[in-house]
């Protein structure tokens, strides 16, 4: 019924990603790094979400499709681009070598915690995502407190952006929430599953905090 809707979603996010990339030259490096960092998380998290939370239709007809990679890439860059509006410019980013290994270790740890919370603790995939995003949002911010304000504002901005997108998307694709979000709690705000607002806010903070770390990688 909604076979191409996920692809349309990708196209809209691509337009926003490109607009931010053109508009914010100073954020381009950060956008690309966060996009690359976020891309594998799309299918890795989606593998859990399709089991108990939502199941979008992909163009390949598989549970995990190319859209999952594309969406993750776009969301990462969009969030980094939004953070560039709120970042405290009084704290310059100094690039350092030796950060790749600890960042990769944190990345692997995050994936282990994500799957461990689902299969080991029995948490729902969305609850596990909330806990993981909350952890990765707070740790960098606590280490560098001046990051927190910009990160929270990024979370608010990304939540508002997703609200605007969903409003138009759900209006055009009537019935798609019931068809795709089969495991949502049923609580909705303006027709949007409440979990999407929580996820967007936490992701915005986590991605903004993470961009501060990724931007310091010396390539």
Explain what you see:
The chain has 219 residues and is mostly helical. The protein has one domain. The protein has 9 helices and 2 strands, in the order H-H-H-H-H-H-H-H-E-E-H. Strands 1-2 form a two-stranded antiparallel ribbon. Helix 4 packs across helix 7, helix 6 packs parallel to helix 9 and helix 7 packs across helix 9. The radius of gyration is 17 Å and the shape is globular. The protein starts with a helix and ends in a 5-residue tail after the last helix.
N- to C-terminal separation? 45 Å
Total of domains? 1
Q: Structural class of the secondary elements?
A: mainly alpha
Largest sheet: 2 strands, antiparallel
Helical element count? 9
Categorize the overall geometry: globular
Uncertain stretches: none
Q: Averaging pLDDT over every residue, what do you get?
A: 88
- Approximate helicity band: over 70%
Please give the radius of gyration in angstroms.
17 Å
The ordered string of helix (H) and strand (E) elements is HHHHHHHHEEH
Order of neighbouring strands in the sheet with most strands: 1-2
Number of strands: 2
Q: In percent terms, what proportion of residues is strand?
A: under 5%
Q: What is this structure's SSE topology?
A:
Elements: H1 5-23, H2 28-38, H3 41-52, H4 66-86, H5 100-120, H6 125-143, H7 146-172, H8 176-180, E1 188-189, E2 192-193, H9 194-214
Notable features of this structure?
219 residues, mainly alpha, 9 helices, globular
């Amino acid at each position: 019924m909604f076979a191409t809707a996920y692809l349309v979603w990708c196209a809209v996010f691509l337009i926003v990603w490109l607009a931010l990339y053109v508009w914010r030259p100073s954020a381009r490096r950060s956008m690309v790094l966060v996009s690359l960092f976020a891309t594998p998380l799309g299918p890795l998290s989606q593998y859990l979400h399709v089991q108990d939370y939502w199941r979008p239709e992909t163009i390949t007809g598989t549970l995990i499709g190319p859209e999952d990679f594309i969406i993750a890439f776009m969301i990462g860059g969009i969030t980094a681009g939004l953070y560039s509006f709120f970042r405290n410019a009084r704290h310059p980013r100094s690039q350092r070598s030796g950060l790749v290994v600890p960042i990769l270790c944190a990345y692997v740890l995050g994936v282990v915690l994500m799957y461990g919370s689902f299969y080991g603790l029995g948490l729902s995939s969305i609850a596990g995502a909330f806990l993981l995003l909350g952890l990765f949002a707070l740790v960098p911010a606590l280490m560098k407190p001046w990051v927190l304000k910009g990160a929270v504002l990024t979370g608010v901005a990304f939540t508002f952006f997703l609200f605007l997108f969903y409003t138009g998307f759900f209006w055009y694709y009537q019935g798609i929430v019931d068809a795709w979000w089969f495991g949502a709690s049923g609580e909705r705000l303006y027709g949007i599953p409440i979990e999407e607002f929580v996820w967007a806010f936490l992701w915005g903070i986590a991605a903004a905090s993470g961009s501060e770390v990724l931007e310091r990688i010396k390539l």
